[in-house]
Design brief:
CATH architecture of the largest domain: Beta Barrel
Order of helices and strands: HHHEEEEEEEE
Radius of gyration: 22 Å
Shape: elongated
Strand content: 35-45%
Strand order of the largest sheet: 1-2-3-4-5-6-7-8
Distance between the termini: 36 Å
CATH superfamily of the largest domain: T3SS negative regulator GrlR
Mean pLDDT: 83
Length: about 200
């Protein structure tokens, strides 16, 4: 199974970056003070450097900037799905239901909230995956109906991620079949409207 980031690689990069930046900081301080500072001072600098790097990787705005920059160098990197999405749910009997979603994704986790006029779905688990060069999301959710007399239910979807052409620009799309604990099935598809994750997509 594939994760958004490889934690082993991240730990190696953090360790390497901490050492490299600490040595540069030591040399800068030594030059500034024009004094031979003991090399042991690097040990006191390193924890602060590591803290700064970890803070950057776990802060959404900074991590998205890093993600975007690295993706320019490696186009095969898992896509940044953050934003608001619009689409529809097609039930087994052919009924079309308008739906909206907001995806909040960091380097460590992903949350997908889906809203329709009659229900809203809350993320229980999401797992990014790469199979045969195709990126996917395994999505498990809990659906809460608008009508309090209706029972809540659970469902699952395997989203395929694709990049579709829309004129001169490329637009991300999600599509897949869904299955619920009420023994209903259908298909669901979304297209990204905006990278903004603060937009209210709820119907009620």
């Amino acid at each position: 199974m594939f994760r958004i980031i490889n934690f082993v690689s991240v730990l190696r990069y953090v360790a390497s970056a901490t050492t490299f930046i600490s040595l540069i900081a030591y040399e800068c301080l030594r030059t500034y003070w024009q004094n031979d500072l003991p090399l042991i001072k690097v040990v006191s600098i390193a924890p602060l450097v590591a803290l700064a790097i970890i803070f950057a990787l776990t802060t959404n705005g900074i991590s998205r900037f890093i993600w975007k920059s690295v993706k320019r160098l490696n186009s095969n990197l898992f896509p940044d799905l953050n934003g608001t999405w619009s689409g529809e749910i097609v039930t087994a009997d052919g009924k079309n239901i308008s739906a909206k979603a907001v995806i909040r994704q960091t380097l460590l986790q992903m949350q997908i909230d889906i809203h329709t006029e009659t229900s809203k779905s809350i993320t229980l688990e999401t797992t990014p995956a790469a199979e045969g060069g195709q990126y996917k999301i395994y999505y498990l959710y809990r659906s809460i109906p608008k009508n309090p007399e209706w029972d809540e239910y659970k469902g699952s979807t395997i989203f395929d991620i694709r990049c579709a052409a829309e004129g001169p620009r490329r637009v991300l799309e999600l599509s897949g079949a869904y299955f619920t604990s009420r023994k209903t099935v259908g298909r669901i598809r979304f297209r990204q409207e905006s990278p903004d994750t603060t937009t209210d997509v709820s119907f009620y």
